Amino acid sequence: MEDDCIFCKIASKEISKDLVYEDENFIGFLDINPRADGHTLIVSKKHYKSLLDIPNSLGNELQEAVKKAGLDLINSGKAEGFNVLVNVGEVADQVVHHLHIHVIPRNDGDSVRLFS
Ligand code: AMP
Ligand code: ZN
């Protein structure tokens, strides 16, 4: 747990948050500033600064979590597809320095613009 890390506080339940996903090493919850309805973040329970710091041994579990979050969006009718986005470093728009994967729902004709 890192001091003053918002995602550590959510992972440790110091700040309560409705979870849409949980397994041994990851949680999922809705982004507070969603790019689309249902925008989900998959977040490690442990503090890793970015994708570069997470051990490869957690790769399968992380992929499962991302796939489950995306499939839930599709199966619930919220999305026809989704984007998976990881920002690494401030130059790449990483604001929260605790590993998280964006799962962004997409629908035909939506106005989501990730690359401009
Ligand atoms: P990034 O730019 O990749 O670091 O994205 C950080 C994301 O975390 C942004 O999309 C924020 O809206 C989101 N975020 C920050 N604080 C919270 C919070 N307390 N609950 C949910 N999402 C948050
Ligand atoms: Zn943290």
Detailed description of the structure:
The protein is an alpha+beta fold. It has a single domain (6-106), classed as 2-Layer Sandwich (HIT family, subunit A), CATH 3.30.428.10. The protein is 20% helix and 21% strand. It has a five-stranded antiparallel beta sheet, covered by helices on one side. Strand 1 and strand 2 (26-30) form a beta hairpin. The longest helix is centred in the middle third of the chain and has 17 residues, at 59-75. It is globular. The model has no long low-confidence stretch (mean pLDDT 96). The site of adenosine monophosphate has 10 residues, from loops.
In short:
The protein is α+β, with helices and mostly antiparallel strands and 116 residues long. The protein has a single domain (6-106), classed as 2-Layer Sandwich (HIT family, subunit A).
What is the H level of CATH, i.e. the homologous superfamily? HIT-like
Number of strands: 5
The CATH class, by name, is: Alpha Beta
The small-molecule ligands in this entry are: adenosine monophosphate, zinc ion
Which structural class do the helices and strands define? Answer: alpha+beta
> Which sequence of SSEs, written as H and E, runs from N to C?
HEEEHEE
- Give the percentage of residues in beta strands: 15-25%
Counting DSSP H or I runs of 4 or more residues, the number of helices is: 2
Level-2 CATH architecture: 2-Layer Sandwich
* Low-pLDDT sequence parts: none
Strand order of the largest sheet: 1-2-3-5-4
